[in-house]
Amino acid sequence: MNELGFITVTLIPIVWIVAAYLVGSISFGIIFSKFFGLPDPRTVGSGNIGATNIARSGKKLPAILTLLGDALKGWLPVWLALQSDMLMWVVAWVGLAVFLGHLYPVYHKLKGGKGVATALGVMLAVSPWLGLACMLAWGIMFAISRISSLAALMAAALSPVFAFLLLPYKDYVWMVLMMAVMLFWRHKTNIQKLIAGTESDFGKK
Asked: Ramachandran region of residue 70, left (φ > 0), alpha (ψ -120 to 50) or beta?
């Protein structure tokens, strides 16, 4: 293999994956909380940097912006990788990298969020139908329970099934499965509270 071939096969995918992780490490919950004069989300409520915890402050706009920002940062690297005709395994790793960046951000001592919105952004980039199916599952469970974590767990549990049915490429199915496993891991405290019946619903600040 000549030098150009080595760069193309080895270094370019690594650059894409590392760049995706760095993008994923941008914590919009912290950024918008500071911008709107809210407390650091890591110090209040559940301590999570996601939109749900920020919404409990009573301020809808920073929560909405956080949700959109976290979803966009998941969507953009994957979309760019697809537009650049990256191999499927590279696209899958780009999706995982941006997701892991949100969970373990290098800019904040690896203490990040739970990854629901970012995972949604990744799935929307891979397949809008996959993303919409997961949003529908989340919406139905949230309408029934008014518990954001339960809705997220339902969507996460169904996401690999949706991916298997909707996506023709196993690389993407494995990516979605890995994200689902990590989502359950990051929600382990919520799962304990759900079992104990002490998990807060969305209306509680």
From this structure: alpha
Structure tokens at 69: 């920002």
Q: Are 53 and 126 in contact (CB under 8 A)?
A: no
Residue stretches of the chain with pLDDT short of 70: 1-10, 58, 201-205
Per-residue pLDDT tens over the stretch 149-165: 999 999 999 999 999 99
Distance (Å, rounded) from C-alpha 150 to C-alpha 162? 18
Measured torsion, CA atoms of residues 74, 79, 81, 82, in degrees rounded to the nearest 10: 140
What's the chain look like in SS3? CCHHHHHHHHHHHHHHHHHHHHHHCCCHHHHHHHHCCCCCHHHCCCCCCCHHHHHCCCCHHHHHHHHHHHHHHHHHHHHHHHHCCCCHHHHHHHHHHHHHHHHCCHHHCCCCCCCHHHHHHHHHHHCHHHHHHHHHHHHHHHHHHCCHHHHHHHHHHHHHHHHHHHCCCHHHHHHHHHHHHHHHHHCHHHHHHHHHCCCCCCCCC
Q: Which residue has the tokens 């949706």?
A: 162
The C-alpha angle 194, 197, 199, rounded to 5 degrees, equals 60
Give the span between the Cα atoms of 34 and 138, in whole angstroms.
29
10 Å CB burial of residue 76 (0-12, 13-18, 19+) is middle
Separation between Cα atoms, residue 112 and residue 32, nearest integer Å: 15
Query: What's the whole-model pTM score?
Result: 0.91
